[in-house]
Amino acid sequence: MPEDTLVTLPLDGLNCAGCVGRAERAVQAVPGIGSVAVNLATRKGTVDLGTARLSEVADALAQAGYPARQETVMLDISGMTCAGCAGRIERALATLPGVVDASVNFASRTAHVTVLSGAAEQDTLVRAVSDAGYEARVQTIDAPMREDASEEAELVTARRAALVALVLAAPVFLLEMGGHLVPALHHLIGQSIGHQTSWMIQFVLTTAVLAGPGRAFFAKGVPALLRGAPDMNSLVALGTSAAWGYSTVALFAPALLPDTARAVYFEAAAVIVALVLVGRWLEARARGRTGAAIRRLVGLQPKTTRVERDGTVIETPIAEVRVEDILHLRPGERVALDGAVIEGESFIDESMITGEPAPVAKRDGDWVVAGTVNGSGFLRYRAEKVGRDTMLAQIIAMVQQAQGAKLPIQALADKVVRVFVPVVMAIALLTVAVWLLVGPDPALSFALIAGVSVLIIACPCAMGLATPTSIMVGTGRAADMGVLFRRGDALQTLGEVRMLAFDKTGTLTLGRPVLTDFVPAPGLDEESLLRMVAAAESRSEHPIARAIMAAAEARGLDLPVAEKVEALSGLGLQAQVEGHALLIGSARLMRENGVSSEGLSARYESLQADGKTPVLVACDGKIAALFGAADPVKPGARAALAALKDEGVEVAMITGDAKGTALAVARQLGIDHVEAEVLPGGKRDAVQRLRAAHGSVGFVGDGINDAPALAEADVGLAIGTGTDVAIESADVVLVSGDLAGAVNALAISRATLRNIRQNLFWAFAYNTALIPVAAGVLYPVTGLMLSPMLAAGAMAMSSLFVLSNALRLRAVQPLLREERPAAVSDIPAQPVAAE
Predict the structure, then answer these.
(1) What percent of the chain has pLDDT over 90?
(2) Between the CA of residue 684 and those of 60, 464, 691, what are the distances in Å?
(3) 251-to-193, 214, 344, 453 alpha-carbon distances in Å
(4) What CATH architecture does domain 303-387 belong to?
(5) Tell me: the pLDDT tens digits for 38-90?
(6) Which of 576, 573, 517 is nearest to 545 (CA)?
(7) Where does the HMA domain lie (predicted)?
(8) Which residues pair with 71 in a beta bridge?
(9) What is the Cα–Cα distance from 514 to 281, expressed in whole angstroms?
(10) What is the tens place of the pLDDT at every residue in 754-782?
(11) Element (H, E) at 9
């Protein structure tokens, strides 16, 4: 078998011979596969790809539950000048053994390469890019800052080249076009220096433009042309050299041309180069603004921190800090790394990470996150996560990954860009031929003008920039709102969802019970009862016990000592507190101990109907109080769901909780579709049922049991305060946990998709409309030809329009502002008369 189609894939999930068979059958089902052999001992599969793509094999194995271990390499690319460059680099990378997928973003100048673990060295990737005619280097955690410096250097170079070209091209334009625009100037030039001398000056200055600032077009465009992969540089090089060459012949060997065609077009070559360079300068300025969100995030990371070493505290570079190092955080400083506080108290502003505006109290044992800002206190903390493991680094990586992704909507533009330049060159040749055959005299001059105009006005860059610039700005703005797109294509999928389903516990609700109702029997003191009950529950880890304790702490109650505490399985507990015998638990516990609770029965049933958990308290054999505990809905949850409905998105709940509790929460929040008492595996089936009934479905969850549903949904949104498993299974992360994030994610997704469609429409309409105009189709009707100089200006403006339109996404405002969760506070007593 051919060696270049043979790959070895390290596999996860292989546990038995049955797994081997299923993995092999999954691969064999891929069209074009040659052969496959999976080895259980080595946990590897050897595959002869045949005509199949490695990405298809990887997808098939992942769907079968035996994913090939992969890793991602991010490359910074330099030397790209048009969208066609990105396609060439992608093809160069994709052909390497072990590369599953390669995506190059022309706007961000980055490549996102997915490779089989250990199958492709980073140097091999860099070398492949170099062989394609470009430069690459592997990204590091500070890559955005280095990229910022690189972009600044690129901007300075582009500005210098544009200004030099303008200075040299201006006299050429005045000498040639000035005479056409102002007849008196034409006569003045003829009488003072003569037209032949004027042409000679134009020749010298235009040659300087082409050999100086315009040299880059030839240095990159000619080799690309010779490789059979012409790009935008090739078009400019061909157009300007045609104008310069024709004019040079007319100047030095006029006898070679017909009498009617002896004219020069030096101004076209010089001004084209100047305008294209000005366009690239302005484009570089605008493009630099699209990556502002990443640079802001990287700017949150301090360069150094104060570390305890050998009994002294020294300023140490972040890169040299290790896990378990003890760090000092002074008032007003940024937290350098993720870790746990071991000494001190302070408030920390976490708004730049979570979006939560209020500072958060930190003391011994609390977690601090890199990039956040300390208040007025001093803290010592232990570094627990460093380098790429910090939350800030992971956020940056997620944003970078999303910004480098390609959306399905971009597929057509990519296909067009791949063949665009060769097609334009063919159109230019056809244009020249038609003008030479049927054009009026001087046909050669008309043919030259039309052919050069076609080459110059064509703009693949606008099509290449249409999607990635919008993605960069859109995902950056989303990060500002606390929404992280882990997969770029989720940006499109989320905007198209018809229904958003939510887990209940921890997603729609706070995820922890609180005391919602407290009904003491007549004549009994409320605080005394709460003191005794909290004392009895103080040794229990039950969630409701913790809710009772929290209510007592909120009132500042001093708890007595409980004795003879005994947990009664499934019923409650009994204890002695300050000489009183307490029973705390269900109605069944009261009945079995001969305690009548008829006076509170109506309220007991009311609490159950509302989805709350009622808890009865008996003191010395008589009913004393009724507590109601519930997992309250998150502040702002109802407003978030209402906002989703206003946007035309249906909402549903999928939960493992009892139907009564689920329906009670659904009534509170206005949810019409409820799937209750669903096991974790059943949540996946529930998503499938909703998809069949309503179309594209998104799922929002936070727990391990939500992972199957997050993976099954068309787009999964994980609450950032949830488990790592849920976050890893999701496509979008809502950092703060506020459901306003889901609304804002939908808003930025739809705004970005609208922006992309506008850009694509402009890019295609521009080229579709103006290439024929440049070819001269309007000449028979109007008698007007498009000047190559105007063509160059239009080409430059087309890319600037796309970039400027994408930058409008920075002004997108949240549809819903996040609400700060309310603290657990006093629950007012609600006494009722005993019957």
Answers:
(1) 14
(2) 19, 38, 11
(3) 16, 21, 83, 22
(4) Distorted Sandwich (2.70)
(5) 877 777 888 888 888 888 888 888 877 788 888 888 888 888 877 678 888 98
(6) 573
(7) 5-69, 71-137
(8) 115
(9) 60
(10) 998 998 888 888 888 888 998 989 888 88
(11) strand 6-10
pLDDT higher than threshold 80 for residue 209: yes
Q: How high is the pLDDT of residue 506?
A: 80
* Strongest mean pLDDT among 67-76, 245-254, 332-341, 441-450: 332-341
Closest CA to 297 of 113, 482, 150, 154: 482
CA 80 to CA 82: how far, in whole Å? 6
The secondary element (H helix, E strand) that includes residue 360 is strand 360-362
CA atoms within 13 A on the CB side of 816: 26
Sign of the CA dihedral running 820, 823, 828, 830: positive
Q: What is the CATH number of domain 483-510+634-735?
A: 3.40.50.1000
pLDDT at 291: 63
Residue whose token pair is 């007595």: 560
Q: What Å distances lie between residue 773 and 132, 451, 767, CA to CA?
A: 34, 11, 10
DSSP state of 498: S
Q: Distance between terminal CA atoms of the chain?
A: 89
CATH homologous superfamily for 514-630?
Calcium-transporting ATPase, cytoplasmic domain N (3.40.1110.10)
pTM: 0.69
pLDDT higher than 50, residue 736: yes
Amino acid 829: pLDDT = 36
Report the C-alpha gap between 215 and 233 in whole angstroms: 10
User: Which of 758, 788, 794 lies closest to 776 in space, CA to CA?
Assistant: 788
Judge whether 348 and 368 are in contact, CB under 8 Å.
yes
User: In the structure encoding, which two tokens stand for residue 34, read together?
Assistant: 């040659």
Comparing 111-115, 186-190, 222-226, the range with the smallest average pLDDT is 186-190
Query: What are the extents of the domains in the chain?
Result: 3-140, 141-290, 303-387, 404-482+744-808, 483-510+634-735, 514-630
Three-state SS for 184-197 is HHHHHHHHHCCHHH
Residue 821, pLDDT score? 40
Beta-strand (E) ranges in 65-109?
Answer: 70-78, 99-105
Amino acid at 113: V
140 versus 278: the higher-pLDDT residue is 278
Q: How far is CA 366 from the centre of its chain?
A: 29
Determine the 3-state secondary structure of 714 from DSSP.
coil
Positions annotated as catalytic residues are: 503
